[in-house]
Design goal:
This protein has ten helices and 19 strands. It has 390 residues and is an alpha+beta fold.
């Protein structure tokens, strides 16, 4: 009897394998279709949620959740509810973080940052100066304003002692700055009234006016010391502790023959290391006069900013308009030029306190807002002045 071939013996095995593979494939396809259906359902839900969030609100009522501190601060401003802030202190286990020991409540971070944004964006030295935050009553800056000695040596030569740098300590005391806006209790009771925004705008506007004046000409008595409160000297004889000046070429005016030369001299009187970050500082009246100046080829020295929000440029350097700078007059220092971040330091405490007073100005409620700020020159080499004199 003939023996069955190998091919005839393997045919059932192949058929069985193909049947199993087909069954597994059908199961895989069924599972894949189920997963795709579930994914499609989830995507439809996400699309509906996105569409719903994009719809315009049917009511002007704010629905965004506020932080506990912000809610407590709003309750204090509107109704004088100080207990809610104290309770928040106990919950956070951080006594006196919200209620000041000397009275008043610390402004919530959102409102405080809004005030800080307004102050930084205002036309003042704050927008370009160095700003440090301190917890003490003063800020001490250590300034090295002399060159450390160096010498070339050989392998066998004796090493001699070189000159050592002199380090000065400049102390910037912090002074209390206050503002007292007021509003009627009826207005505060109106839930549609944005009391935090109103308070931030009023406080920031008054703080900015006081700071701007002090940073320019403050005498340092119970206020920051301004850049123009320091002694001045002809730049050829400049020494540390004074500000070097460049004459304009005419008493109370620019030189009639070459008015732009004084500005060029002013720029190059500043050491090269400071010029990369330097800027001009002047008020609007002075800027109006400078804008008319031309070079020998009849081209204006002044160039407007190329994009919105960018400062104008004079001789290639940005111009900061600070209305508290003096006008052009006999002997005045109407234009400053320098690296303001290196030259001037503003020291401040990060907290802002508000004390609610419903009694002193009935039927209005007074808000006594205070913060501590100081300022002074910390690098006398980084700033030069144009003096309108012959």
């Amino acid at each position: 009897m003939p023996t069955p071939s190998t091919d005839s013996q393997s045919a059932p095995d192949v058929k069985s394998a193909l049947t199993g593979f087909a069954a597994d494939f059908r199961g895989f396809r069924t599972d894949l279709e189920r997963r795709l259906a579930e994914q499609s359902t989830r995507l439809d839900a996400l699309d509906r949620k996105a569409i719903a969030s994009a719809r315009p609100a049917l009511s002007s009522t704010r629905t965004d959740p506020a932080s506990p501190h912000q809610k407590a601060f709003a309750a204090y401003v509107r109704q004088g509810d100080e207990d809610r802030v104290r309770h928040l202190d106990l919950e956070e286990k951080a006594l006196t973080t919200a209620v000041a020991a000397e009275g008043g409540v610390l402004v919530d971070p959102q409102t405080a940052s809004r005030i800080e944004t307004v102050l930084r964006s205002s036309s003042s030295l704050r927008s370009v100066a160095r700003i440090v935050q301190v917890e003490a009553t003063a800020y001490d800056a250590l300034v090295d304003h002399t060159e450390m000695g160096a010498a070339w040596i050989t392998e066998s030569s004796a090493i001699s002692e070189t000159a050592t740098p002199n380090i000065d300590r400049i102390s910037i005391p912090l002074h209390e700055l206050s503002a007292t806006p007021k509003a009627s209790q009826r207005l505060l009771d109106d839930s549609a009234f944005d009391v935090e925004g109103w308070l931030a705008e009023r406080i920031a506007a008054r703080f900015a006016r006081a700071e701007n004046a002090a940073f320019i000409s403050g005498d340092g008595v119970d206020k920051p010391k301004g850049i123009l409160a320091h002694p001045v000297i002809d730049n050829a004889s400049w020494t540390w502790g004074t500000l070097g000046t460049i004459p304009s070429g005419a008493d109370g005016a620019f030189s009639a023959s070459d008015p732009g030369d004084a500005l060029v001299t002013l720029v190059y009187a500043l050491p090269a290391g400071y010029r990369a970050n330097a800027a001009f500082l002047m008020n609007s009246a002075t800027a109006g006069a400078v804008r008319k100046l031309k070079d020998a080829d009849g081209r204006y020295l002044w160039a407007e900013g190329l994009t919105e929000g960018q400062p104008a440029r004079l001789l290639g350097y940005p111009v900061l308009i600070a209305e508290d700078m003096p006008d052009i007059a006999s002997g005045s220092h109407a234009i400053a030029f320098g690296d303001m971040r290196a030259a001037y330091t503003i020291a401040e405490r990060p907290d802002l306190r508000v004390l609610r007073d419903p009694y002193s100005a009935k039927p209005h409620v007074l808000f006594y807002a205070t913060r501590r700020v100081g300022g002074d020159i910390t690098d006398f080499a980084a700033l030069k002045l144009l003096q309108f004199s012959s």
